[in-house]
Amino acid sequence: MMTPTTTVPATVTAFDLVSGLSAQRPTLRRRLSAMAAMYADVEAARAQVERDDVLVYEFYDMGVPETSGDVAYGTSITYPGKVGDEYHMTKGHFHSVLDTGEIYFCLRGTGYMLMENPEGDWQAAEFGPGQAVYVPRRYAHRSINTSATEPLVTFFAFPGHAGHDYGTIETRGFRKLCVERDGEPVFVDNPKWAG
Ligand SMILES: [Fe+2]
């Protein structure tokens, strides 16, 4: 009998349930200057960058091999804040291999997973601690933090070969924006959507 091939040894990684961070690896960090043009109020974004180029979100790439038999995973932390009346969010992406799904399990905070497929169908799933959102195949996805005070901390997992396509969303945007109206998050049409 052949010994099964393993590419990644059994690994234990500690992620802090409050901060979402692991002391064992560096994060990839995205400051507002790296995504100012993605917000509806570009002037507000640029003014904020001038005052303080805030850290909007950070996440882990655990370095799992990019093969279909492996599972990429890590935490994502989106910090509270708004640009104009639009809540802090991640850039969002399609998977390069479009036909791959993903799971996000919320550890802390409150917010939405905004999803959109190439045909323009969109969904926004509200989630909080203990709730998992399943992102279907073919749907771009973006985390949005709607809390005024707490980071949105999630644990994600997706097929190792999925890859990331950030460019499509950078070009076309999401169909919907998540903005504050009378103290509540609502989704409105994105006037710049190019889908
Ligand atoms: Fe993804």
TrEMBL record:
Reactions it catalyzes: alpha-D-glucose 6-phosphate = beta-D-fructose 6-phosphate
Segments crossing the lipid bilayer: none
Glucose-6-phosphate isomerase prokaryote domain boundaries: 30-180
A matching Pfam family: GPI
GO biological process, one term: gluconeogenesis
Keywords: Cytoplasm, Gluconeogenesis, Glycolysis, Iron, Isomerase, Metal-binding
Tagged with keyword Iron: yes
GO MF terms held by the record: glucose-6-phosphate isomerase activity; iron ion binding
Location relative to the cell: Cytoplasm
Family membership noted in the UniProt record: Belongs to the archaeal-type GPI family.
Protein name (record): Glucose-6-phosphate isomerase
Organism: Nonomuraea muscovyensis
